[in-house]
Amino acid sequence: MSAVIDTASALALNAYCARCIDNDELEAWTQLFTEQCEYRVTTADNHAQGMEASLIYADSRAMLNDRVLSLRTANVYEKQRYRHLVGLPVLLGETQRGQHSETPFLVVRVMRGGETMIFATGRYLDELVIDGTDTLRLASRVVVCDSHNTDTLLAIPL
To answer: Nearest 5 degrees, angle CA 107-CA 92-CA 51?
Structure first.
């Protein structure tokens, strides 16, 4: 059976992305991207103005893997976990390689002591592609956060 890019497959990919992050399976999360990919976290204001400076930036799966490795071995931050609520993706149109999609999200952060708070809301702007192994992957994910106020503790990917 061949992979297709439709709403159901985009929904499944988003659900698996959220599951990987929420269950601290970040190594599996990086595998959902193509080798040459883009991953950025930015604000709605910066995105609307075309500013490409990002809170998190990677331009390859290798950079994503390096970020995960540093989270595991070098970075020091208070233990926390996320819980994602991901909306339905909307396919916005074809690209040369695949499809653009937009998906709303809400991320709740749970701290070690149990404090729970809404951490981020926004939308994922994705380019979905089918790679050479007939697998649906993210060629690009721009995480556009609704708020310009971002906690300095943005360690875990959104």
So the answer is: 65
Q: Report the alpha-carbon distance of residue 134 to residue 116 in Å, rounded.
A: 39
Phi, psi of 78 (to 5 degrees): -65, 135
The 10s digit of each residue's pLDDT in 14-36 is 999 999 999 999 999 999 999 99
pTM for this structure? 0.93
Q: Can you read off the two tokens belonging to residue 71?
A: 């989270």
Calpha distance 140→16 (Å, rounded):
16
Question: Sign of the C-alpha dihedral, residues 108, 21, 101, 52?
Answer: positive
Amino acid at 48: A
Q: Which residues pair with 76 in a beta bridge?
A: none
